[in-house]
Hints:
Layout: H1 13-27, E1 33-36, H2 43-55, E2 65-67, H3 74-82, E3 87-89, H4 92-96, E4 100-104, E5 120-123, E6 135-138, H5 145-156, H6 162-175, H7 185-194, H8 200-207, H9 214-222, E7 227-229, E8 232-239, H10 245-253, E9 261-267, E10 271-277, H11 285-293, E11 298-301, E12 305-311, H12 312-319, H13 324-339
The chain binds manganese (II) ion.
Manganese (II) ion binds next to loops.
Amino acid sequence: MQLVNPATYEVDIEGNRARLEQLRKVVGDAERVALLLQDDPDPDGIASAIALRTVLGRNRSTTPIFTFGQVTRAENLAMIRLLDVSVEPVDTETLRAFPRVALLDVQPGYFGDRLPHVHIVIDHHPRCGPLDAEFCDVRTSYGATSTILTEYLEAAGADVSQRLATALLYGIKSDTLMLNRETGPADLRAFMALYPLTNYNVLRRIERPELPLVFANFLARVLPRIRKREELLTLHVGQVDREDVIPQLADFCMQFENTEWVVVSGKTHDAIVLSVRNPGYVRSAGDVVRRLFGNVGRAGGHRSMAKAIVPLRSWRKAFGSTRDNHVAETIELLFWKELYGEGVEPMQASA
Ligand SMILES: [Mn+2]
């Protein structure tokens, strides 16, 4: 392998300046520009939006940040709170009233027919459907949209605040799993440029979000219920008021020694919710939950994290009972057989 020093990676400054000029032409003197992110906005999208606002020399009232969904992950909520970013819910009608709509870290194809005409698309994902916009900059070789925006800021000679640098660095870091996944020299270079401006105290607080103190009581109550079978750790916590404790607890449990798979589950008012984690080099967690629960509920996810939601009625039909002891045993057995045993047929929803 040839070594590529990101410090010597040549940014296409002229190209970026030309794009910037075209971008500004498309925005023109439009009174307001809607910055639209995907349905569960992630740090890369959020950072890109506040960077575009700076590139355009706008403020939050003329460039509001929107999503059709909401920010849900604890880290992402911490990011918008600590960096004082507001991401507002939007609907198609509201978007239609904006003279310009910009998509960041996402493409029109993602939204189906929820979108009015969009004018700007800046993204790094593989092409998804037609790109019918006046300005498109889709760089699929980049690990993050934040990298593209960092280059724009450079091309514009913009004043980059500590807040903005911290957001962009975190955007790159989280989208590339700390520069592990799909990272190119452009991402490394942008990361290096942002590094000296970043506020590491804020970054640490984003990455390790504070837990409410009542979580301690919850932990004390549920941790004794951990079941460990070889490298499989399962924990059914019973009834929960807040669903977000389930993924948080799953992340936490991955830290126990000799653990390859974590399944944390809980009961909401109408469903059994499961969060699954693994270190990423074993079978895809998304595939496993789809195989086990795809026929009885909603199930899906990525290589290292996945989720399933099974309505209580369907759970009872498929597995017999939603009593907590029974659920805990069922989950351990299902995952044990699927991951380490002979393999079982996926459960069929009975008619
Ligand atoms: Mn991204």
